[in-house]
Amino acid sequence: MTTTQLSSLNTNLKPTTPLFNSLSNDIDHINKFVIFFYRIKNNYDKYQKGLSVCPVNINWNITTTTTPNAINFSSNENISGVLSALYYKYVLQQYYQKTDSSLFSSFIFKALEEDSLRKRQARNYFKDSNCCDNKTISNYNQYHFTQKLKYMGNR
Q1: Is residue 10 part of a domain?
Q2: Rounded average pLDDT over 90-109
Q3: Interhelix angle for 81-93 vs 104-126, to 10°?
Q4: pLDDT-derived band of residue 23, with 50, 70 and 90 as boundaries?
Q5: Is the CB of residue 56 less than 8 Å from the CB of residue 79?
Q6: Residue 127 domain-assigned?
Q7: Which of 24, 76, 106, 137 has its CA 20 to 30 A from that of 84?
Q8: Quick one: residue 129, left, alpha or beta (phi over 0 = left, psi -120 to 50 = alpha)?
């Protein structure tokens, strides 16, 4: 897999629906991108150990383009396990371009930041409480509830 092919994959996976600046309000896409990131990370970890890796599903809308000498995907397709592992490493190398809205890696980094912010807000809200009534919470479905430290972590 060449850098040019990974670069074209990075532009091909860019979603059509959410705008980059309004991603913080689109919780569904945030969750999709975070889950995608951790699935390709899991594949990368397994690939480094020589274990078998699983394909990763693209479950957001992307614009289907035909770029020559590149791998093009469309919505509801699976990226092969090895390709997703190589793509994970490529995404981490693209952190310096995290504000470029034409790259899918930027959407991943923004989604990870928003997810982290919501987890911190939920943790501060609950203040390590063991239980909380969901009727008293105004944005109940918009938080990742972490009521105890043992439930904190990547999902």
Answers
A1: yes
A2: 82
A3: 80
A4: confident
A5: yes
A6: no
A7: 24
A8: beta
150 domain-assigned: no
Tell me if 120 sits within 8 A of 145, measured CB to CB: no
Tokens matching residue 6: 């990974």
Number of domains in the chain: 1
Is residue 61 included in any domain, yes or no?
Answer: yes
Domain that holds residue 88: 3-114
Q: Is 69 left (phi over 0), alpha (psi -120 to 50) or beta?
A: left
More confident residue, 138 or 89: 89
What pTM was computed for the model? 0.73
Is-contact 64 53, C-beta < 8 A? no
**Can you point out the beta strands (E) in 1-154?**
56-57, 78-79
Using the predicted structure, report yes or no on whether residue 147 has a pLDDT greater than 50.
no
Spatial separation of the C-alpha atoms in residues 56 and 82, rounded to whole Å = 10
What is the chain's mean pLDDT, rounded? 75
For the purposes of burial, counting CB atoms within 10 Å of the CB of 37, is it exposed (0-12), middle (13-18) or buried (19 or more)?
buried
What's the confidence (pLDDT) of residue 137? 52
To the nearest whole percent, how much of the chain has pLDDT over 90?
Answer: 8
